[in-house]
Amino acid sequence: MDDYKYQDNYEGYAPHDGYYRGNESNLEEDAQSDVTEGHDEEDEIYEGEYQGIPHPEDVKAKQAKMAAPRADGLRNQADLMAERMEDEEQLAHQYETIIEECGHGRFQWILFFVLGLALMADGVEVFVVAFALPSAEKDMCLSSSKKGMLGWGFSMGTSYHFHSWRVFVIVCALPCTMSMLALKFMPESPRFLLEMGKHDEAWMILKQVHDTNMRAKGAPEKVFTVSNIKTPKQMDEFIEIQSSTGTWYQRWLVRFKTTFKQVWDNALYCVMGPYRMNTLILAVVWFAMALSYYGLTVWFPDMIRYFQDEEYKSKIKVFHGEHVYGATINFTMENQIHRHGKLVNDKFTKMYFKHVLFEDTFFDECYFEDVTSTDTYFKNCTIESTIFYNTDLYEDKFINCRFINSTFLEQKEGCHMDFEQDNDFLIYLVSFLGSLSVLPGNIISALLMDRIGRLKMIGGSMLISAVCCFFLFFGNSESAMIGWQCLFCGTSIAAWNALDVITVELYPTNQRATAFGILNGLCKFGAILGNTIFSSFVGITKVVPILLAASSMVGGGLIALRLPETREQVLM
């Protein structure tokens, strides 16, 4: 029976004679099945396991296990972001309704006054240097390289004189000081507090706005009906350390790191987040405006002064080989060149040299007393037996000169530099007219901003300013340059105003200040670059500054049209 079973199960074997009578392949298959009987493929021993090499399937399983929490975290972050965006949209519409209930009245007028002082301070700082510089550089003896130190003028010098330019600077500083003090008494923006999740503080400020306006309108009994305001989902919380936790250095370091992370995240969100395209376009427009506007505002006065200098030089008088003996000269000598002359026993007393050059001239037994000078030099002269008493003819006035038995007695004290005097009024006039010309542009832009929209105002203003730049090719006189400057400033200011408005309206509340700061920093860089480039071409060519300004205006205006219009958009 056993033999029969054996034979029945394994037909390839002959149990009685011991000979192999079956197929060899069958033998191998049967042997393999016998070895793997009761064994699963998943339980196979991985060959690399003996060498300490993990199985590929184990690696994949581990990676999948680690990726699952990360993916969940990303999904949670995306869900939180989507929820926050939805909350911000609901808050934007609700906030408009709340502001309508608060009304417009005394509180807004107070706010307008305080912010007006701040804007006044911003406007003053742009033009105050141009007004104060001519007087300050004389008072403090500032060279061209040291004019940037004007802000330290109150502490410079051994003696302090309360001159008129200092009074002017103090008066110009009053709006800034008053606005700083007034802002300390103004509440924080309730919209910003809501974005930060501070519902109760925001509600109290909105109630204060409502009650202030209602009392001013004679309805103090009117109740603020808003009880709950939508607060956006908070993505992270600001870390606040108790005073008993750690050292002061550790507390300060944690607060600094947390604040820095918030600022950095806001900056990245503006540059790389969903607003990156708007930020890129705005950066180009801001830079183009700053390069052209600030470059030309510096170029205009320099060109006007250049025209004056050229006209002045065209009237110069040149004297060759003159001989003067025993003369007394007590009048003003101006815009003259004396070459190869000979002056013997001449007396120069109580006189003024203005733009005078003595070249290859011989002075013998002359006497200079109580003499003042501006831009006056002695070049390659021979000065013999001559006395200089109480003059400002210092050593730097004499270039390659030879002195023989000459004496300098009691030279004038004070600043040793020459300053222009005739151009002071022109500087004031150009700065004043440039400031005055923006007033009509401000009024027109304020009236038409909501009618024609931000984009049309930016594009139109920049294109008209570019046309004004081309007309500068025909400005070959002082009056023409002043006129084109006023027209350029008056038309371009509308683009500045619309650009400020659209920059604020394109970003949500919690990123608005960061975006404005980034773009304003880029604007300052453009202004510095424009001042450097444009001033370097004064007296060389007008083509480069004009073409650069016009092309920047045209390019910036056309690129600005790709921004979304925000005229009727609810602020997020």
Kindly describe this structure.
The protein is elongated. The chain has 14 helices and 14 strands. The chain has 572 residues and is of the alpha/beta class. Residues 1-53 and 144-161 have low confidence and may be disordered. 23% of the residues are buried. The longest helix has 47 residues, at 56-102. The strands form 2 sheets. Strands 1, 3, 4, 6, 8, 9, 11, 12 and 14 form a 9-stranded parallel β-sheet that branches. A 5-stranded parallel β-sheet has the order 2-5-7-10-13, with no helix packed on it.
Q: Determine the N-to-C terminus distance.
A: 93 Å
- Principal-axes geometry comes out as elongated
Radius of gyration: 42 Å
Strand content: 5-15%
Give the helix/strand class. Answer: alpha/beta
What is the H/E order?
Answer: HHHHHHHHHEEEEEEEEEEEEEEHHHHH
Runs in which pLDDT lies below 50 for 5 or more consecutive residues are 1-53, 144-161
Question: Which percent range fits the helix content?
Answer: 55-70%
Q: Give the overall pLDDT as a whole number.
A: 75
Query: How many individual helices?
Result: 14
Please give the largest β-sheet.
Answer: 9 strands, parallel
Number of strands: 14
Properties at a glance:
single chain; 572 residues; disordered N terminus; 14 strands; alpha/beta; nine-stranded parallel sheet; five-stranded parallel sheet
